[in-house]
Amino acid sequence: MKAHDGMYIDGAWRPAAGRDTIAVVNPVDEQVIAEVPAGTVEDVDAAVRAARAALPAWAATAPAERAARIAALRDVLVARKDEIAESVTAELGAPLPFSQAVHAGVPILVAGSYAELAASYAFEEKVGNSTVYAEPVGVVGAITPWNYPLHQIVAKVAPALAAGCTVVLKPAEDTPLTAQLFAEAVHEAGVPAGVFNLVTGLGPVAGQALAEHEGVDLVSFTGSTAVGRRIGATAGAAVKRVALELGGKSANVILPSADLAKAVGVGVANVMGNSGQTCSAWTRMLVHTSQYDEAVALAAEAAAKYGDRIGPLVNAKQHARVRGYIEKGVAQGARLVAGGPEAPREQGYYVSPTVFADVTPEMTIAQEEIFGPVVSLIRYEDEDDALRIANGTVYGLAGAVWAGDEAEAVAFARRMDTGQVDINGGRFNPLAPFGGYKQSGVGRELGSHGLAEYLQTKSLQF
Ligand code: NAD
């Protein structure tokens, strides 16, 4: 795979300050496919300086001009979508059709939405005798994970650019090639030098240097709750803005009036997509006791249909972690009805689509984020019991409710402590705010709510 051996800083690819590199591994065959530079504190500093120098001019551009640059960026992503899909498949291991439809397709939608929002957003409003201006927060330090490599980048960079902010991106070490491709796209789109900068590197080195840099005004982080907590503490100590998109353990609540086969089938598919490496995946399926056995049979059948059609996990560490969780589920008394801890292939970080029955709410597999293709079926006695189980984790990122009657599902969803709920399989909406209640995070991404994260207000009284 093609890789740059430098950092994209101030509008050009520049040599890295140090000599260390990060090997990029294809999770399908465990072969090294490229090396990228491991950024240091010096690289981060150079990138932040470039972003700060570019800020006054970019912040002062008319929203229509920023919209035009984001529209151009969207067009480059469209033109290069096959390359993007191939890059994600090579470093994440996702099957090519999934990479084309989701990993390349969704960022194009999101970039398009911000091209429109940049042009139409009310950056100025009258409140009584005041005029309130929404102004850019400043320099953004964006730190992203590997699970949706391009989506996570675009969900931060597009609104930041729309707001008039400048950005330094530190992408995940497993998926830097897609990030380099994105930097090329930004360049091709004619975004001025210094407005977007890329530093590849290790989290505890380059990521931490970015989060701690005094020239960064807002840290926008997506990743694990453990790292998010540290970044939140660092930002708090510096009185710096922070947005955290963290983990999840979402509930798929199937009420007795629902179309059971559909709810179970869509529920299993929701977890198996991206091999379970989706923070908002509905990994806990809640089924009424009267329908439980039927749901277990349907879920086992749905998982078996996936067979070996799902991709591998991203790396050896995740592979060991997910298999460890499956072993723990068995040890704590859950019943395996599909899949299991054995690696289904000799090569590659594969895990079989796995379904657990007889899971109780307090088991580790029902509480902790597994981040693999594992669904747990939990039984409930009545609606209050279902709600208690659904809300009974430290997370609150997403969820689903199924019922025969939409109003019944909505009434239940309104009682859930979670940021977004899909009603009877509702479709993804790139304009709907995405983010967590409780320990799933702070702040929102996507749509106008996502744009507001990159703005601060100034009011003038007359
Ligand atoms: P991670 O927290 O290990 O890494 C995420 C990013 O943070 C990477 O770029 C990494 O290099 C960087 N990082 C690591 N240590 C750091 C440090 N000390 N200082 C600064 N940066 C550091 O998470 P991961 O393993 O890459 O991703 C999986 C996790 O991300 C899961 O828990 C998942 O739920 C969560 N996630 C959440 C969302 C969401 O929107 N809520 C989306 C995707 C992933």
How many strand units? Answer: 20
Text of the CATH class of the largest domain: Alpha Beta
Strand-residue proportion: 15-25%
Rg (C-alpha, Å): 22 Å
Overall structural class, as computed from helix and strand content, comes to alpha/beta
Can you list the strand order of the major beta sheet? 14-15-16-13-12-17-18
The number of helical runs is: 15
What small-molecule ligands were found? nicotinamide-adenine-dinucleotide
Principal-axes geometry comes out as: globular
Q: What would CATH call the homologous superfamily of the largest domain? A: Aldehyde Dehydrogenase, Chain A, domain 1
Determine the CATH topology of the largest domain: Aldehyde Dehydrogenase, Chain A, domain 1
Low-confidence stretches: none
- How many distinct domains? 2
**Percent helix range:** 40-55%
Question: Taking all residues together, what is the mean pLDDT?
Answer: 98
Instruction: Provide the CATH architecture of the largest domain.
Output: 3-Layer(aba) Sandwich
Roughly how many Å apart are the termini? 59 Å
Biggest beta-sheet profile = 7 strands, mixed
